[in-house]
């Protein structure tokens, strides 16, 4: 049977291979934690566990995730307030000994402390959607949809129209907390230079006056970040000088095409004939180049 460590607004349930974080219901629990729901955190996703004195006779137990293990923290980029930290458990100071025992249990089950290339904590569930100041965003696991409010969206967004961005088109996600003046959710699109002002960017939703609340916008941003890290890397067309040797223009063909003035014209014509006979030039290409070379005599 799993062991439970209950704290203020949250309980940690210790299982084989993971700790399950269950947030309590109640007005004192932040809406973001309610929105995240129960989270299963594998021990391999953690780098450490800390115990520090809290306020008013409390003890704060905090699990420290490995860098890159949780898309929520990647998306938040250090902007979460302490009360919104999903890895924080507040206990009565009298339970310090018990907390130390569980901390030791977790440390003994951890596997490495360095950064990881893929997310080890499950993403917030999809589909997800929220309303911003100038539009609304939705994510279904495959694509982001942005729909603009004609009453508040800038002219640039109205002209661009509603957007549908697939994961292969998105190269990054930038979430700026609605608690700051320039709060927004911006999607970086491959091959597109974004305007500096998110209000002018048709791949950004602006937060303002209660629109784009953290509890709604951050889980969506985290879900997209997680999906991007799990998706295979997009296949890009190679530049001409990066093609396979067989796909490149033959060196002889390059030399013939760029034949210098006064060069060995008969010899170049013979090389062109060889290229034609090998199937690398058509008869029309051969005749055209032959006429060009003879005109240089």
Question: What's the structural domain tally?
Answer: 3
CA-based gyration radius? 30 Å
Total strand segments: 14
Q: What name does CATH use for the topology of the largest domain?
A: PH-domain like
Low-confidence blocks of residues: 252-261
- SSE pattern: EEEHEEEHEHEEEHEEEEHHHH
Tell me what the CATH architecture of the largest domain is: Roll
Key features of this structure:
single chain, 297 residues, alpha+beta, PH-domain like, 3 domains, four-stranded antiparallel sheet, 8 helices, 14 strands, 26% strand, elongated
In words, what does this structure look like?
The chain contains eight helices and 14 strands. The chain has 297 residues and is α+β, with helices and mostly antiparallel strands. It has three domains: 107 residues, PH-domain like (Roll), CATH 2.30.29; 103 residues, PH-domain like (Roll); 55 residues, no CATH class. Strand 1 and strand 2 form a beta hairpin. The longest helix has 17 residues. The protein is elongated, with a radius of gyration of 30 Å.
Question: Which helices and strands appear, and what pairs or packs with what?
Answer:
Elements: E1 3-6, E2 10-15, E3 18-23, H1 31-36, E4 39-42, E5 46-53, E6 58-65, H2 71-76, E7 88-92, H3 96-109, E8 128-131, E9 135-139, E10 143-148, H4 155-160, E11 163-166, E12 170-176, E13 184-189, E14 204-206, H5 214-230, H6 251-257, H7 265-277, H8 283-294
Antiparallel strand pairs: 1-2, 2-3, 3-4, 5-6, 6-7, 8-9, 9-10, 10-11, 12-13, 13-14
Helix pairs in contact: 6-7, 7-8
């Amino acid at each position: 049977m799993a062991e439970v460590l209950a704290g203020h607004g949250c309980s940690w349930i210790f299982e084989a291979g993971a700790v399950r974080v269950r947030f309590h219901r109640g007005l004192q629990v932040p809406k973001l934690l309610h929105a995240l729901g129960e989270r299963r955190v594998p021990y391999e996703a953690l780098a450490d566990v800390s115990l520090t004195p809290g306020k008013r006779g409390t003890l704060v137990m905090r699990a420290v995730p490995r860098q890159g293990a949780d898309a929520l923290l990647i998306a938040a980029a250090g902007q979460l307030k302490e009360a919104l930290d999903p890895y924080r458990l507040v206990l009565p100071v009298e339970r310090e000994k018990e907390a130390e025992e569980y901390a030791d249990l977790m440390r003994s089950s951890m596997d490495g402390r360095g950064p990881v290339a893929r997310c080890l904590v499950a993403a917030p569930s999809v589909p997800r959607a929220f309303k911003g100041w100038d539009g609304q965003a939705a994510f279904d696991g495959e694509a982001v949809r942005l729909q603009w409010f004609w009453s508040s969206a800038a002219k640039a967004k109205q002209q661009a129209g509603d957007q549908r961005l697939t994961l292969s088109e998105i190269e990054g996600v930038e979430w700026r907390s609605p608690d700051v003046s320039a709060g927004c959710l911006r999607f970086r699109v491959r091959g597109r230079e974004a305007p500096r002002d998110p209000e002018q960017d048709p791949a950004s939703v602006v937060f303002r006056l209660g629109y784009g609340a953290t509890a709604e916008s951050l889980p969506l941003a985290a879900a997209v970040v997680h999906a991007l890290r799990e998706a295979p890397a997009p296949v890009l067309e190679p530049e001409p000088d990066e093609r396979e040797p067989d796909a490149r223009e033959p060196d002889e063909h390059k030399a013939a095409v760029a034949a210098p003035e006064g060069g060995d014209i008969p010899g170049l014509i013979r090389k062109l004939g060889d290229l034609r006979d090998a199937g690398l030039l058509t008869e029309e290409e051969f005749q055209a180049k032959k006429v060009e070379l003879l005109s240089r005599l």
